[in-house]
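Internal tracking record. Fields below are filled automatically when a chain is submitted to the structure queue. Please do not edit lines marked as system-generated. If the sequence contains nonstandard residues, flag them in the REMARKS field before resubmitting.
Queue: standard
Priority: normal
Entity type: single polypeptide chain
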Amino acid sequence: MLKTYTMFKIVLLSALLMGCASSSNGHLNENQENDSLEPMNRVVFSFNDTLDTYLLRPVAKGYRAITPEFFRQSVENFFDTLNQPTYLMNALLQGQMKDAGSILGRTGVNLTFGFFGLFDVASDAGISNPKNDFGQTLAKWGWREGGPFLMLPFFGPSNVRDTIGFGVDVAADPVYWRLRHSKEWGLIYGGYALNNLQKRESILDLTDNLKNSSTDYYAAMRTMYRQNRQKKINQVLPKSEDEANAYEFDFEIEDEE
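SYSTEM-GENERATED OUTPUT FOLLOWS
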């Protein structure tokens, strides 16, 4: 959710430049091996992994050690509630009316009965949480293949389409712009730090297991991202196309927004 506008511009510009460069090399199929930028991606991945090993992971482990599980779950629920307007925008743009109804329903329930979103009463009531994003929207509009795989500094695995989608989701976030307009910089950066700390803590076991069991951590991370991302894309495609692009998924991870 709360991302800095400067970083958004850098990420978006990089994605556009890489997309233009890749399009001149012919048609790209994301279902095939498509990592034409692998040497650069591995350098970025090494940077991210070093930062994670010596800073992010230890801080996340410390955060887990000193906070009870119910507190961490409430933090996750709260930020997910703040993201619901962006999810709703994308559901409407995708024509996913069922998802839009679920988003409206769970937002109302959690704000009313979940103490402003701290408790996920909606999920307990059986209301789904689709988490639609603009990368999916672009796929629904026709950009089925996301372009070459990208490893973004700080943000991790992506591709050209989904990097642009990420930037649009940031730019369209009404909560961010409301805080920015009021110059609540402490809330912006504090919220950004807490949200991402919670996200890192939530995948500690997953990334530890993946890293320890992989002979090539970069390749394993790339495969995990692609499989889970394709599953998300298939959720908004027509049923027949969804079946035609079906995958066997070995990983199941939560989305980062």
